[in-house]
């Protein structure tokens, strides 16, 4: 009986820890309309966290390049673009990286966290000012 309880506790702990992970696919939600815009896959590469657009729901925008982006992202297809870059884990948050808005080309400092209801809190900063979006996990 004791072994069964221990196994059950370990299983429950591992499932809850896994649910709080930023990695995976997330549905982005438009701030103004509340409609789903895209799917971003958050992944790890070389010890840092990145996120790339893997699906765009508006078929008229699927093949557009990022004409307002700068540097290496300029004129690259938005579909497949890494919009989240160089994040590192700092306690319960992922910080020290950036996110680019492909429509405006603006780059923001970024903080990511998974909320208790398993949504991704995406908070972009410029100085002390910030805006927060909540992305839904694709299960």
TrEMBL record:
<keyword id="KW-0732">Signal</keyword>
<feature type="signal peptide">
    <location>
        <begin position="1"/>
        <end position="19"/>
    </location>
</feature>
<dbReference type="InterPro" id="IPR019223">
    <property type="entry name" value="DUF2147"/>
</dbReference>
<feature type="domain" description="DUF2147">
    <location>
        <begin position="24"/>
        <end position="137"/>
    </location>
</feature>
<dbReference type="Pfam" id="PF09917">
    <property type="entry name" value="DUF2147"/>
</dbReference>
<protein>
    <submittedName>
        <fullName>Uncharacterized conserved protein, DUF2147 family</fullName>
    </submittedName>
</protein>
């Amino acid at each position: 009986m004791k072994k069964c309880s221990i196994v059950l506790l370990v299983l429950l702990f591992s499932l809850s820890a896994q649910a709080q992970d930023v990695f995976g696919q997330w549905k982005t939600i438009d701030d103004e309309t509340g409609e789903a815009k895209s799917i971003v896959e958050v992944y790890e590469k070389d010890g840092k966290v990145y996120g790339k657009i893997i699906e765009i729901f508006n078929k008229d925008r699927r093949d557009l390049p990022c004409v307002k982006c700068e540097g290496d992202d300029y004129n690259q297809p938005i579909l497949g673009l890494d919009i989240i870059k160089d994040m590192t884990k700092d306690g319960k948050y992922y910080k020290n990286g950036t996110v680019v808005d492909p429509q405006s080309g603006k780059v923001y400092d970024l903080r990511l966290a998974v909320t208790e209801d398993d949504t991704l809190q995406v908070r972009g900063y410029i100085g002390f000012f910030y805006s927060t979006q909540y992305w839904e996990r694709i299960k």
